[in-house]
Amino acid sequence: MADLQVDYLDLYLIHFPIAQKFVPIEDAYPPEWLTTDTPDGTPKMVLDPTVSYRDTWRAMEQLVEEGLVRNIGFCNIGTSMIRDVLSYCKIKPAVLQVEMHPLLTQEKLLRYAREQEIQTMAFSSFGSPSYVELGMATPEDSLMENDLIKEIAARYDKTPA
């Protein structure tokens, strides 16, 4: 929070439903997702199997109770994990952030979040261009290259974005 020059955060989200090992700031800031400190040098995630999602949620609730955070939520989870969190949470999640765009509408997940009065926030709303550099998508997976999107954009004299 000192880096952000704020006294509290309006919203704090759990990014992934996995725990990673703590990396001291003096070793890496910000810490990376992967380490190459493996026997064969192949990058791998530094996971911490001793920390449960419940543990993480409880720590997030503690931040709210201490006044450091106003709202908490999560990213990249589905309805069963949301149900699980709702079964034990003291502070209800405010936001669910998930990948959502015309090729990935997540209708059932969106409906469930609405039913639970959890606000949904989309990421990668132009498709998957951020995944190309990770090798998880090709440039053609982007909505900016989608033929229908390009046709609609041309019809209205707009860019695909």
Write the layout of secondary structure elements.
Blueprint: E1 9-14, E2 34-35, E3 44-45, H1 53-65, E4 69-75, H2 79-88, E5 95-99, H3 107-115, E6 119-123, H4 129-132, H5 147-155
Parallel strand pairs: 1-4, 4-5, 5-6
Antiparallel strand pairs: 2-3
Question: How many distinct folded domains?
Answer: 2
Radius of gyration, whole Å: 19 Å
Number of strands: 6
Would you tell me the overall average pLDDT? 89
Distance between the termini: 33 Å
The neighbouring-strand order within the major sheet is 1-4-5-6
Major sheet details: 4 strands, parallel
What's the number of helices? 5
Helix content estimate: 25-40%
CATH superfamily of the largest domain: NADP-dependent oxidoreductase domain
CATH architecture of the largest domain: Alpha-Beta Barrel
The CATH C-level class name of the largest domain: Alpha Beta
User: Based on CA inertia axes, which overall geometry fits?
Assistant: globular
Query: Can you write the helix and strand succession as a string?
Result: EEEHEHEHEHH
Strand residues, percent: 15-25%
